[in-house]
Amino acid sequence: MAYTAGVDIGNSSTEVALLRTSADGTHEFVASALYRTTGLKGTKKNVPGVVNAISRAADSAGIDVDEIDRVLLNEAAPVIGDVAMETITETVITESTMIGHDPSTPGGVGLGQGTSVEITADRADHDPDEPVVVLVPETVDFAVAAGLVNDWVDEGYDVAGAIVQRDDAVLIHNRIDVEIPIVDEVSELDKIPRGQPTAVEVAPQATGKSIDELSNPYGIATVFDLSPEETQKIIPVARALVGNKSAVVIKTPSGDVEERTIPAGKLHIINERGSTAEVPVDEGADVIMETVMDNWPVADVQGESGSNIGGMLNRARASMAEVTGQAVDSIEIRDIVAVDTLIPQEVEGSVAGEFSMESAVALAAMVKTQQLPMQQIADGIESELDTEVIIQGVEANMAVLGSLTTPGTDVPVAILDMGGGSTDAAYMNTDKDIDSIHLSGAGDMVTMLIDSELGLDDRDLAEAVKKFPSAKVQTLFSIREEDGTVDFLDDPVDPSLFGRTVLLEDDGGMRPVPVSKSPEEIRRIRRRAKRRVFVKNAERALNLITPTESIRQIPFVVMVGRSSLDFEIPEMISDALAEYGIVCGRANVRGEMGPRNAVATGLVLSHIGGGSYLDFELPAELSTSLERTPAKTN
Fold first, then answer.
1. Residue 215 CB contacts under 8 Å (≥ 6 apart), including other chains
2. Looking at residues 386-402, what average pLDDT do you find?
3. How many whole angstroms separate alpha carbon 630 and alpha carbon 397?
4. Which member of 8, 76, 539, 597 lies 3.0 to 4.6 Å from 42 by CB, making a disulfide possible if both were Cys?
């Protein structure tokens, strides 16, 4: 008996296909295994994960690891994703402090404007003819605060609004003799400047309406009598307050807060002919990607020095230099994918953690060293297992061979291998020649977009949002799913989930999502991210690998890889390709593995040659398509 293990090192997971060759020359796949990838794909840190995955396959086959005669590896190119933004990481507002706080229970209604004053201040120090907005610290009880407001009013002062540190807005409103807007739960009340022009607005409750004036830059300009130049600087404040039920804006003394910016910068795209194209990042993803494709194939991408994009690409190079031991200037970026997005950015000068949704461009870069450190990985595995290790072939080419074990496929065929960091595509024509392409951008980029747009700051939660549908817990026995369907439950949900948005996990569990977004909005953000990354990248990849650069020439497209298991992505790509008359769907590798294990299976097939040995029956014409032929890559 002889055993051969094909090992596919992916960005997120490492897969193994274990084949047994009998003494009479017959072959049989006896085990498969899956384990998380350790370290950055394509680096020596992958070795422990590979060894673990091979050990699992050996255990499943009932053999010892040292009985495996050889290990076959794919060439694994790493992909690093990051975000380049139009503005600096903090939006800094000149001469303005804002409280975009949106508590669930503000008090009163309307717009009030006046000078910010401590509620316990000596009233004799203030002009009764000037309206005031009182500040109520947590040391002042709600009943005492209400009494003090009434005292101010009884003595002839115009109390226009109140800002409260504790959750006391309704309690205070119910005990005062005037109708004023009250915003509460402002934890850092001490940061609010005293004696400054202040505006407080609370929208009518139970109407579904949000504030009008303080979410409108011209409304703020009217309240504070701003010049056109000052109004331009207040735009991020207004944008951050859109949709809020309550808000406060305070005009600080001139010079308290300074405005500063770091430019998004320009990309310099160098093609293999040696010419360079320049594109500003703030022109958006469509212009960037058009420039990339106009200069394909790309030899390197560089960013403008001192800019956000320059920093992002330098970090990517530095990361690879660190793990490979090569010089930074020897590392090239062979592809980027850009996607327009919105990112919540903290507003400098705020006192309640406000954010402004800023336009940004999300970028994933495929980083390539002068020589991929695959031999280091092979040497590490050989040292650990004391067996022969061979770098067998390019990932996409191997995926074609593995995918052709899917019943119902034939050549010419294209595959889309959609993993965590990259989208690979390969095309096999009727002469059994293979063209392949390796593009940046896949599941990890979708996770990054979801994490950014929802402001989660939690990649694990963003990954869950990507994988599972959402719902709203309406009662202890019913939920409303993101498509509007209402489901009634046999058992009550955890009371802590009542009224919250949750993710419906595969095991029946419900995971709360700590953002003030409806399930419908989460679904919209999730699906938009998937379309912008997977559908666009799939179309780009297929156009690049077809001989005539026309997707219509491809009769079969087979989807493999981790992201092919997603509950939405295959459907989205199939819908996009339907207009071309293409048979498109998930693979079923070896008739039993689904879209998993295509590369690992292809590595084994490529090594031993031929396809007629498979122990399950395939169409006769499929066997010939598995004959090992020289592969070419562009």
1. 238, 241, 242, 243, 244, 247
2. 88
3. 10
4. 76
Contact (Cβ atoms closer than 8 angstroms) between residue 95 and residue 257:
yes
How does DSSP classify residue 533?
Answer: I
Other Cβ atoms closer than 10 A to 554: 20
Task: Give the separation between CA 610 and CA 623, rounded to whole angstroms.
Answer: 7
Per-residue pLDDT at 86 exceeds 50: no
d(CA 424, CA 419): 8
DSSP state of 86: S
Q: Which residue has the tokens 């409103």?
A: 173
Mapped to the 3 state alphabet, what secondary structure does 349-394 carry? CCCCCCEEEEEEEEEEEEEECCCCCHHHHHHHHHHHHCCEEEEEEE
DSSP letter string over 278-294?
Answer: EEEGGG-HHHHHHHHHH
Copy the structure tokens of residue 454: 């929802």
CA pair distance 112, 90, nearest whole angstrom = 29
235 vs 257: CA distance, rounded Å: 16
Question: Where do runs of H (alpha helix) occur along 29-70?
Answer: 47-61
> Is 493 within 8 Å of 479 (Cβ atoms)?
yes
Residue identified by tokens 């790509």 is 573
Sort strands 132-136 and 159-164 into parallel, antiparallel or unpaired: parallel
Q: Which two tokens stand for residue 322?
A: 């660190």
CA-CA distances (angstroms) from residue 316 to 340, 367, 372, 381? 20, 7, 15, 26
89 phi and psi, to 5 degrees? Answer: -65, -20
Residue pLDDT, tens place only, 123-176: 888 888 899 999 999 999 999 999 999 999 999 999 999 999 999 999 999 999
Distance from the Cα of residue 388 to its chain's centroid: 39
Residue 69 or 205, more confident: 69
Phi, psi of 80 (to 5 degrees): -120, 130
What the block records as the tokens of 333 is 């970026």
Q: 562-589 pLDDT, tens per residue?
A: 899 999 999 999 999 988 888 899 999 9
Structural domains in the chain, sorted by start: 81-89+261-368 (3.90.470.30), 97-250 (3.50.30.70), 444-521 (2.40.50.140)
Average pLDDT, the chain: 84
* DSSP codes of every residue in 483-510: TS-EEE-SSPPPGGGTT-EEEE-TTS-E
Global pTM value: 0.71
Strands 90-92 and 332-348: parallel
Cα separation, 169 vs 245, whole angstroms: 13
Number of other CB atoms surrounding residue 299 within 10 Å: 17
CA atoms within 13 A on the CB side of 395: 27
